[in-house]
Every structure is written in C-alpha cells, then in structure tokens.
C-alpha cells in the first residue's frame, strides 16, 4: 500500500511548524511547493466502526458464501448431477478466475483505493452466490462458481492489501486476527450449509449470504469510500488515517476531519517519534534483511502461498464429500469437516499474532507446514468419521498462520508497492493453485479420496523445503 508520508523529513517539517503555530490551525508544508497528502492518525468518528473492526467484518463476510458452498457441495452435486471429476473441473475454473481477479486487483489497487475494490467485490458476490445455490445443471453450477470466483478473488486481494496497510499503520500485527474472523465465519457457514441444504435445499443457503453481506456493504458505504491523496494516490487504511491535501498556508477548517483530529489527539509533537517509526524506510535505508532474496524471495513465497492455499481448498471443498461417503447416515453433518478445519484454524489465529512476534514469520510458517502435512496423513489413513474430523482439525491448526505470514512477508519485501507485489505473488501461486483441484479430482476418481489427501500432504512437504530457504541468511 502506498504510504503518504514517505520520509522522516516530512515529519521534521511538521514539527518545526507545530512549534510555531497552534495545533488547531497547523499548516503542513512539504520540502517542495507541490501539495502533499499527509497521513495522520484519526480516532473513529461517532457512530462509525473503527478501521480494524470494519476490515475484520469484510474478512468475515468474505468467508460466508464460500463456507455455505463448501457445506452444500454434496447436496448441490446431487441436485445438478455433478460427478467428482466434474467437481474438480468446476473448482479448477473457479480457481483460475479467482487468481486472475486477484492479479487484476493488485494492479487496480495502485490507482483505486482498496476500500472501493472491496465494495465492488461484495456487490458482485451477492448475486453470484444466490445464483450458485439455485443452479440445476452441472454446466450452470460451473458457470456460477466461476462468477463467484471473480468477486471473491478481487475481495481477497483488496481486503488483504487493506489489512496489511492497516497493520503497518498501527505499528502492530493484527492481520491474523482478521483471518481468524474469516476462519470462524467459514466454520459456522460450512456446518450451516450442510444442515440447510440437506433439510431444506441448497437454494435456502442464499438467505445467510444476504443477511451478512448486505449489512457489511452498508457499513462500508457509511464509512465513506474516501478521497484520494496527492496525484490521485490511494489512501492508507480507511478510518485509521486522515488524508489531508495540504496546500501552501492551508489551515484546518473548523468542523473538518483535520480539526476533529486536532481536538481529539494529544499534542502532535509527542506523536511524531511513533509516527516516524511506522513509516517504511526509503530504498537506500531499508535493512539488508528486507532485501534478502529480492524478487526471487517473493516468488518462492508465492509458491509456498499457492501450495498452502491449495491444501486449504482441499480441506474446505473436498471434506464434505469425503465425510458424506464415509458415513452416509451423517450426511447432514458433512460440513463438520470444513467446520473443524476452519474452527481450529480460527482458534490458532486468535493467538497467531503473539506466535509471530515470538518466532517470526518464517519459523511460524515452517512449524505450521509440518502440522498440516501430518493432519492430511491422519485423514488419508482414517476409516472413522471422528478420526477424519481430528485430521481436519490438525490441518486447520497447521494452515492457520501460513497464508497471513506469507502475505506479511510479501508486504515487508515490497514496502510501498505491497498491492502490486501481492498481485505478483498471487499470479505465481496461481500456477500451483489452478491445476490442484483438477488433479485432486482425478486422483480421487482413479484411486480414492485417501490417496488424494496423501498427495496434498506431500505437496506441503515441498512447501516446507521452499520455506526453509527464507530462514537462511543472505550470502
């Protein structure tokens, strides 16, 4: 995410002017005469949620439609006549469109504020999800799932770009908490999806989508999509920053956002050291650790990201079918596999930020990949419904921190170009993710679901080898 106060010299200029004028009428001037968009901390306005709460709500809404779909897969397969290889093909097309939307979103985020992209994506997801749950043929289901992938991919990129920028702006790690909200939503929706689809039919799964996504859309609209910074640059995290286009001798207008900030916050002089520490260093000032691996490091992280997300999709989208076949009398609870997976994932993510601070992102990724691979091994060897649930729970524990840590590493390496770097990494990950569902479906049809899950565990072992390179010091 582009930062609007790129260098400490801006902070020094602010300090000099604050010392000469009252805070309520401060005039901020950059080193040249061009207008400069300065990011200032801002408490939430009355009646509005905080930036962190609003972005977390978007993460929650993102997972609702996907969770309901995951739980309703067995019922939708019966309703549309879709077989296991057809499911693999449909998920492959969904993944391809999803990745393309993420890559396009990474480029769009350079010119369009991610909060605007989030609103557009949510508007697209609502009708696509309703269409998906009402499909009657395999071809219609495949098309609806692809359309849902377009909106979900764009939302995935936009909310992670906003989340990483918010994390950097706050100066502390909060991204895993947002991913925990997404996991919790998926767990509830997956179990609810299987129960609703079995008892009343898949089309009724559209009601929870409307009940959750529409209020989040309204909250985004009320929070405001925000203006742009200087030269049309996207703003930093919404509601947590006040963007002020500063002209020569421009003063705060009573009742404006700058005036409200001045009245709410402690003295600006006391805040500047913390503000300066939160800004990324210029390229020549970046520590060597942030430049380790360069673009090759981002590419490797992208491959690990692709393998990790492919394993998550395997647990989310194939567990219901696997459990329904394993225990037909418990078909109404087939969504419990995805629920256990994402439920334990959410629980770990609640404490994931502390784990990241203690171990660092790379070591957290390595430990997580080991646990996830073991979990798929348990599922592959399972003959009992309860044992399979334990395996999916272990997979959830193992995958909890991998994707958020990968996003954080990419943002760290990219600095101010985080949205574009996230798009690049997503494109690299797509080379792994796109064929994964097709291969999984083919393996399940040719051999068994157990062998297919064993293959996923082997892929995570490869991800572990690639991630170890990130732990080695540069030459």
Q: What structural class results from the helix and strand content?
A: mainly alpha
Main sheet: which strands, in order across? Answer: 1-2
Q: Strand content of the residues, in percent?
A: under 5%
For the biggest sheet, the summary is:
2 strands, antiparallel
Map the helices and strands.
Blueprint: H1 8-20, E1 36-41, H2 51-80, H3 84-108, H4 114-132, H5 138-170, H6 175-199, H7 206-223, E2 241-246, H8 257-264, H9 268-278, H10 288-291, H11 294-326, H12 336-350, H13 352-359, H14 361-380, H15 385-399, H16 402-414, H17 418-433, H18 436-446, H19 449-468
Helix pairs in contact: 1-9, 2-4, 2-5, 2-6, 2-7, 2-11, 3-5, 3-17, 3-18, 4-5, 4-7, 5-17, 6-12, 11-12, 11-15, 11-16, 11-17, 11-19, 12-15, 13-14, 14-15, 14-16, 14-19, 16-17, 18-19
Molecular structure report:
By secondary structure, this protein is an all-alpha fold. It has helices at residues 8-20, 51-80, 84-108, 114-132, 138-170, 175-199, 206-223, 257-264, 268-278, 288-291, 294-326, 336-350, 352-359, 361-380, 385-399, 402-414, 418-433, 436-446, 449-468, and strands at residues 36-41, 241-246. It has a two-stranded antiparallel ribbon. α13 crosses α14 (361-380). The radius of gyration is 23 Å and the shape is globular. Residues 1-45 and 225-293 have low confidence and may be disordered.
Annotation keywords:
475 residues, two-stranded antiparallel sheet, 2 strands, 71% helix, 3% strand, disordered N terminus
What can be said about this structure in brief?
With 475 residues, the chain is an all-alpha fold.
